[in-house]
Design goal:
The complex is a heterodimer of chains A (125) and B (395).
Chain A lengths: L3 H8 L12 E6 L6 E9 L2 E10 L2 H14 L4 H4 L4 H7 L8 H25 L1
Helix pairs in contact in A: 1-2, 2-5, 4-5
Chain B lengths: L4 E2 L10 H7 L1 H4 L10 H21 L6 E4 L2 H15 L6 E5 L4 H12 L3 E5 L9 H7 L4 E5 L13 H11 L2 E5 L18 E5 L10 E5 L25 H16 L1 H22 L3 E3 L10 E6 L4 H10 L2 E2 L15 H5 L4 H4 L3 E4 L6 H21 L1 H6 L7
Parallel strand pairs in B: 1-11, 3-4, 3-5, 5-6, 6-7
Antiparallel strand pairs in B: 2-8, 7-8, 9-10, 10-12
Helix pairs in contact in B: 1-8, 3-8, 4-5, 9-13, 10-13
The site of FE2/S2 (inorganic) cluster has 10 residues of chain A, from helix 2 and helix 5.
Chain lengths: 125, 395
């Protein structure tokens, strides 16, 4: 059902865990499958220096979280916020049609985490 | 070599060696069409007659009450749709349960489009149907009650003798899908007052693609497949001689060894249940503790999701399945668990372990060891688990 790249990211997911005192956190859920994803960001000077995730979900969701966190590390928040689920799927070399929404969770969680960072920053000024 | 443990016998079983051997001569040697007059046909017909007689005797019915089908799904479709179509003039109401196999539920849904009224009986939290609700649901126009003997996901055994009794008193036909039960549950259709019963060979070490529907003589049912005179004109299609022969041998062994097998299977099942419950926190047994199939254990592991767990077990050589959402490739969660009111957060991880005749105690050690590790790994990854531990989420 899943290709090797997906399985690799599922078997050895990168960036699992939480960040203490994160600069941004995004938590999203999918109502139809009940799965939940959280992404934690460490941001310095609008550059993402670290990203971690926690996911309650299928293998595609775990692989997407792993891939998405790898993609955004080192990127500026402006670049990272533009990352789409399509890019995540491309990097994973494809997901089964029924598992597309799992990658959407990753896109949404990143966006929320960055917005969370921005709003915190705004209120600190 | 990597260890391989098959714990998905509720999905299908391997074909027994004796069964394969019994079938072989009927592929190329005695290959005749039982409907032919000549020697080749007569020899094949003899084998089919012998199988039919024997299967009927094992079920407690007459050979003329056995109709061979392509499997359990066809038998279920026939039982439901056939009765409805043949008896429309007498009523349009069918009673079934919320936890039936898809073959029954989908057949009922199909009939709803034709104007049938279907009552889907509730089950309790153990997955057992409510007899009082059944009694109240029967009306003048009720044609049929269809309740499975044993559930395929959680293994719950239904009170089919009581249901049959109620149906007999109220003069309503009773069909049971016994696909999971043959070879594990003692069934005699005459003694148990059953009017129709579906069975499928590949669940008891027989080949795939063959099953049977028992229809008590005198019941008006529709001709199911138009064609030749096979199955006394009720189901056309060239008789599947080798598979029928195989099913008979498989069923004979399964019923002959039922007590010994059940003893072993329930011992392994209980051992697995005990070890999971004592060694893995927040694991919940789905289904009834005693009233369940000897080979079925179904567990939910809180805070994690089933597909990930099953894939991990698969990588370790352990084949299990789930009745839940993601694994089956569909997003809807198990209709059985939701009918049982199992909380949504744990239906996600429901995992079915179904033992078979090759299972042994060493398997359990291996399963527990891997299960523990996997559950720990997945929980460490789960945001639900962290929350439960009281760690704040700064959103
Ligand atoms: S995240 Fe729900 S099915 Fe993949």
């Amino acid at each position: 059902m899943y290709n090797d790249k997906v399985m690799e990211n599922f078997k050895n997911p990168q960036n699992v865990g939480e960040i203490e005192n994160p600069d941004g956190v995004g938590r999203v859920g999918n109502a139809s499958c009940g799965d939940i994803m959280e992404i934690y960001l460490k941001i310095d000077d609008d550059i993402i220096t670290d990203a971690k995730f926690k996911t309650f979900g299928c293998a595609a969701a775990i692989a997407s979280s792993s891939m998405a966190t790898q993609l955004i590390k080192g990127k500026s928040i402006d670049e990272a916020i533009k990352i789409t689920n399509k890019q995540v799927i491309e990097e994973l070399e494809g997901l089964p049609p029924k598992k597309i929404h799992c990658s959407v969770l990753a896109e949404e969680a990143i966006k929320l985490a960055i917005e969370n960072y921005k709003s915190k920053k705004a209120s600190n000024i | 070599m990597k260890r391989k443990i098959y714990l998905d016998n509720a999905a299908t079983t391997s074909v027994d060696k004796d069964v394969t051997e019994a079938m072989l001569p009927y592929f190329s040697g005695t290959f005749g069409n039982p409907n032919s007059l000549h020697f080749f046909g007569r020899e094949a017909a003899k084998a089919v007659t012998a199988a039919r007689d024997n299967i009927a005797a094992m079920l407690g019915c007459k050979p003329t009450e056995i109709y061979f089908t392509s499997g359990g799904t066809e038998a279920d479709n026939w039982a439901i749709k056939g009765i409805y179509n043949a008896n429309k003039d007498k009523g349009n109401h069918i009673i079934t349960s919320k936890i039936e196999h898809k073959a029954v539920i989908a057949s009922c849904k199909r009939l709803e489009k034709d104007g049938a009224k279907i009552t889907y009986l509730d089950v309790d939290k153990y997955g057992i149907v409510d007899l009082e609700q059944l009694k109240k649901s029967i009306t003048e126009g009720t044609l049929l009650v269809s309740v499975m003997t044993a559930n395929n996901e959680v293994g719950s055994l239904q009170p089919i003798k009581e249901i049959a009794q109620i149906c007999a008193e109220r003069k309503v036909l009773f069909h049971t899908d016994a696909v999971q039960a043959i070879g594990t549950v003692d069934i005699n259709v005459k003694r148990d007052n059953i009017d129709m019963l579906s069975l499928s060979a590949h669940k008891f070490y027989g080949p795939k693609g063959i099953g049977a529907l028992y229809i008590k003589n005198g019941i008006k049912n529709d001709r199911y497949i138009s064609g030749g005179s096979q199955e006394r004109g009720m189901r056309g299609g060239t008789t599947n001689v080798p598979l029928i022969v195989g099913m008979n041998v498989a069923m004979e062994k399964a019923i002959r060894d039922m007590d010994i097998n059940n003893k072993k299977l329930s011992y392994l099942r209980d051992m697995l249940i005990k070890r999971i419950e004592s060694e893995i926190p927040d694991a919940f047994l789905n289904g009834h503790r005693e009233r369940r199939l000897a080979n079925n254990a179904n567990f939910s592991f809180k805070y994690i999701e089933g597909e990930s767990l099953i894939l991990m077990l698969d990588m370790q050589g352990i084949a299990v399945s789930s009745g839940s959402a993601c694994t089956s490739g569909s997003l809807e969660s198990s209709h059985v668990l939701s009918a049982m009111n199992v909380p949504a957060e744990i239906t996600q991880s429901a995992t079915r372990f179904s033992f078979g005749k090759d299972s042994n105690e060493q398997d359990i050690d291996y399963i527990i060891e891997n299960l523990k590790n996997n559950v720990t790994t997945l929980r460490a990854m789960s945001p639900l688990f962290a929350q439960q531990k009281g760690e704040p989420i700064n959103v």
